[in-house]
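User: Okay, second chain of the day. Same drill as before: sequence in, structure tokens out.
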Amino acid sequence: MPSIAFAQVTVQSIINNIVNNVVWPIAIGVIVILWIITGILFLTALGDSTKLTTAKHSLFASLAGTIIIVLAGSVIVIIRNALGI
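Assistant: Same drill. Structure tokens below.
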């Protein structure tokens, strides 16, 4: 326990902990759920054009969400490297 008492808590360490332990798991969970829903929509469409259209829209939304999450992680790394953190 003494190491905890002498640990220096900085704003950067707090933000890193929040991002790594809260934000990323939630984002990954949402993306996984979106992809599962998309798969279910395609499986249940059974050739119906309106259901296939809904499944395609879900596919594009899942793909866009995945790209946004990946880019968000990349932006964080780029900003850290630019600031020398």
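The mean pLDDT is 87.

User: Thanks, on to the next one.
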